């Protein structure tokens, strides 16, 4: 409607000066694959697809806006987290584009005897392949480096560099690598604590769970329809069932520790006489002080109890019903949008048929998401054990 009105105004003015040529020029602008009408139709489709992604209630929209604004104001926190993994844990070198303090940075692989990167160069090239700046000629592995990026939106816009957010190749590569690397996902330490008697040893196990949407139906749908993006479907799943993280400590007697013990367990690891990382060769020393004969059965029993506790604390039955009802309500709204669109295209059977196919696929995706909500999973993201003792592991 707006396109027609704009074109009629332009045509009326051009008729006085150009005559019949104005009609031919108008037809040229409007028709064809790159014409105004086709571009407008594509814009309408894109808007319909955006509208169908989700309906956000006004109170949720306010919370979302507030959360985004708060995150943008503290974007340096994300940079500190990325630096802590890439630089402090994995020993990459971070340097600014123009100076050490420049917030446009690159991450560089390091080899040699002085603080080498804690992965092989082949792993770096494999896991960070899409984040490598291949325009730089590397004469040796020490010159392998990522694309430049910044965590400041204003800097990214003014200097035309990548923004450090989800979707940036560096962050996506780091995320995939951390999912593969098991360092930090399983730990055990011996901690000397004043809260236990000198002759006492108390064992506590920690489980970090992620409660998330079930992906069985989503993955099956993506395999059956190659044109669909499984990553996009997974993100829609996160919208329908926002992941929940839960950390839980349990003793070997399946009891949660009190606040004082919990604070002692949560204390960061310290390389001192109080904390000893239990590496593979230190387990015999642990076994000489603590009975580990039933260790596998104990770990499985405590984990099962931890899952039961998390399910009870998160009230998953009520949460599942709430999220399923919200998705069904959203589906009804989107259904009305598609029905109105199909009805408006009734004079164009081809366009109406395309819209009907889009709606059929949308229904399949929403049915898969609904099944995933009801079949949510509890994934163990990390696990650890802490032996609180009155004396050091080794004298």
Outline: extended
What kind of assembly state do the chains in view correspond to?
Answer: single chain
- What are the secondary-structure elements, in order, as H or E? HHHHHEEHEHEHEEHHEHEHHHHE
Discrete helix count: 15
Walk me through this protein's architecture.
The chain has a five-stranded mixed beta sheet with strand order 7-6-9-5-8, covered by helices on one side. It is built from 15 helices and nine strands. The protein is an alpha/beta fold and 395 residues long. The mean pLDDT is 86. The radius of gyration is 29 Å and the shape is extended.
Brief summary of the model shown:
The chain is α/β, with parallel strands linked by helices and 395 residues long. The chain contains 15 helices and 9 strands.
List the defining traits of the structure above.
alpha/beta, 15 helices, 14% strand
Any chance you could write out the topology, listing elements then pairs?
Blueprint: H1 2-18, H2 21-30, H3 36-53, H4 58-73, H5 75-89, E1 93-96, E2 105-108, H6 121-127, E3 149-150, H7 153-159, E4 162-163, H8 169-180, E5 186-192, E6 201-212, H9 216-224, H10 230-240, E7 244-251, H11 259-266, E8 275-277, H12 283-289, H13 295-314, H14 316-344, H15 349-374, E9 377-389
Parallel strand pairs: 3-4, 5-9
Antiparallel strand pairs: 1-2, 5-8, 6-7, 6-9
Helix pairs in contact: 1-2, 3-14, 9-10, 9-15, 10-15, 14-15
């Amino acid at each position: 409607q707006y396109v027609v009105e704009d074109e009629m105004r332009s045509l009326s003015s051009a008729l006085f000066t150009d005559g019949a040529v104005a009609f031919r020029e108008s037809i040229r602008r409007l028709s064809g694959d790159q014409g105004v009408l086709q571009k407008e139709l594509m814009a309408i489709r894109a808007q319909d697809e955006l509208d169908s992604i989700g309906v956000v209630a006004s109170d949720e929209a306010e919370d979302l806006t507030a959360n985004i604004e708060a995150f943008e104001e503290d974007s340096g926190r994300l940079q500190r987290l990325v630096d802590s993994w890439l630089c402090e844990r994995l020993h990459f070198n971070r340097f600014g584009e123009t100076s050490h303090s420049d917030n446009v940075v690159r991450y560089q692989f390091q080899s040699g005897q002085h603080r080498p990167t804690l992965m092989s160069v082949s792993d770096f090239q494999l896991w960070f392949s899409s984040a490598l700046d291949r325009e730089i000629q590397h004469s040796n592995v020490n010159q392998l480096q990522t694309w430049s990026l910044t965590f400041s939106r204003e800097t990214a816009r003014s200097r035309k560099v990548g923004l450090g957010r989800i979707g940036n190749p560096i962050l996506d590569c780091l995320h995939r690598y951390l999912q593969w690397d098991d360092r930090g996902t399983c730990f055990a330490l011996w901690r000397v604590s004043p809260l236990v008697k000198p002759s006492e040893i108390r064992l506590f196990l920690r489980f970090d769970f992620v409660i998330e949407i079930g992906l069985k139906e989503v993955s099956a749908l993506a395999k059956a329809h190659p044109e669909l993006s499984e990553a996009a479907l997974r993100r829609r799943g996160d919208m329908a069932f926002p992941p929940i993280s839960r950390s839980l400590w349990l003793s070997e007697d399946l009891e949660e520790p009190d606040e004082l013990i919990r604070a002692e367990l949560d204390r960061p690891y310290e390389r001192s006489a109080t904390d000893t990382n239990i590496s593979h060769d230190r387990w015999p020393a642990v076994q000489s002080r603590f009975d580990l004969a039933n260790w596998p059965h104990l770990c499985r029993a405590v984990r099962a109890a931890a899952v039961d506790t998390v399910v009870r604390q998160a009230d998953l039955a009520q949460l599942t019903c709430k999220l399923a009802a919200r998705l069904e309500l959203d589906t009804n709204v989107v259904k009305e949008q598609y029905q109105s669109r199909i009805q408006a295209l009734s004079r164009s059977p081809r366009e109406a048929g395309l819209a009907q196919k889009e709606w059929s696929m949308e229904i399949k995706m929403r049915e898969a998401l609904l099944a995933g909500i009801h079949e949510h999973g509890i994934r163990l993201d990390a696990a650890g054990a802490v032996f609180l003792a009155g004396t050091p592991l080794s004298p």
